Amino acid sequence: MRYPIVSALLVTLIAVAGCSPKPEVGSEVIKIGSVAPLTGPQAHLGKDNENGARLAVEEINAKGLSLGGKPVKLELIGEDDQADPKTGTVVAQKLVDMGVAGVIGHLNSGTTIPASKIYADAGIPQISPSATAIAYTAQGYKTAFRVMTNDEQQGKVLGQFAVHSMGAKRIAIIDDRTAYGQGLADEFEKAAKAAGASVVAREFTSDRATDFTAILTSIKSKNPDVVFFGGMDPQGGPMAQQMKRLGLSAKFLGGDGIQNGNFIKLAGAEAEGTVASLPGLPLDAMPGGAGFKQRFEAKFGPIQVYAPYAYDAVYVLIEAMKRADSAEPAKVVAELPKTDFEGVTGRIRFDAKGDTTGGAVTLYQVKNGAWVVLETVK
């Protein structure tokens, strides 16, 4: 495996060959991968992740960074996995072959999980800002970490909220059969049943579908109080519209995959009343949320969802490099479990699996066309 530090001479030769602009003469380059869907229905979320990571890289470069007694510059390599597991593994191998020192990503659990084996085999640290499926860190890879609460906690909070706060006794569940959507739906189902609800229907679709008429018609006949959807906003928005069109009076509930402005845009007026969760604190309640919002939006525009976590993930990676005084992946991996970092999103520490500890989950509801905080569960 190549070392992640590339000589200044090589950088100069690449620049002469017409490649993208690179660091100042005299600095060595540390390449960091950032992987998310940059095209397709989830591109708005993927670009949000990449921009969060990019802001951190630009700030660190501006302050100056030295490792092993030498000045270095960070270079963010943004790659598009199209939210597709097969593409995710191709991109992961590409980054390994490029000699990246670490990877921020992937966005989706469905791409993060298969890619994690490739990074683990290469010994390259991976920090996901947004993959919440339990299976990601349950594999036991020493290279796998995340800075966002997983679906065990999120599903539990959602299930209890559906029963105790929404008054649900009869619940229908739909998932998109991705690692994220199905995993969250499974955890939600367990929690809802434990809280006393009955699951009257369990249906599934795909993360490419847009017509849910058949599923919703079947669910309507079961007369549920709440319909829970495990999936993302490109499906959640149309689903909310079609529920209203079919006269399905159940309340609509989802996870972090629909808790964004694009869901409201896609669902239109039918978004009103929808409840969804997001791991972590609301942006304005995050320790560094206000400052991050100002810096990020001045450069990239409105925050979608996960940008603060991608930003923190970069800083966690670089702090591990500083402790190791090296960008050599094996040394960085050894330092990551020692993380105790006060980030924009809060205090970040990892348990033995690589999961962040002490995470919160916040519930939101669409009111007057905007997401409004209902409560935060810690």
Automatic annotation (TrEMBL):
<feature type="domain" description="Leucine-binding protein">
    <location>
        <begin position="30"/>
        <end position="369"/>
    </location>
</feature>
<dbReference type="Pfam" id="PF13458">
    <property type="entry name" value="Peripla_BP_6"/>
</dbReference>
<dbReference type="GO" id="GO:0006865">
    <property type="term" value="P:amino acid transport"/>
</dbReference>
<dbReference type="InterPro" id="IPR028082">
    <property type="entry name" value="Peripla_BP_I"/>
</dbReference>
<dbReference type="InterPro" id="IPR000709">
    <property type="entry name" value="Leu_Ile_Val-bd"/>
</dbReference>
<keyword id="KW-0813">Transport</keyword>
<protein>
    <submittedName>
        <fullName>Amino acid/amide ABC transporter substrate-binding protein (HAAT family)</fullName>
    </submittedName>
</protein>
<keyword id="KW-0029">Amino-acid transport</keyword>
<comment type="similarity">
    <text>Belongs to the leucine-binding protein family.</text>
</comment>
<keyword id="KW-0732">Signal</keyword>
<dbReference type="InterPro" id="IPR028081">
    <property type="entry name" value="Leu-bd"/>
</dbReference>
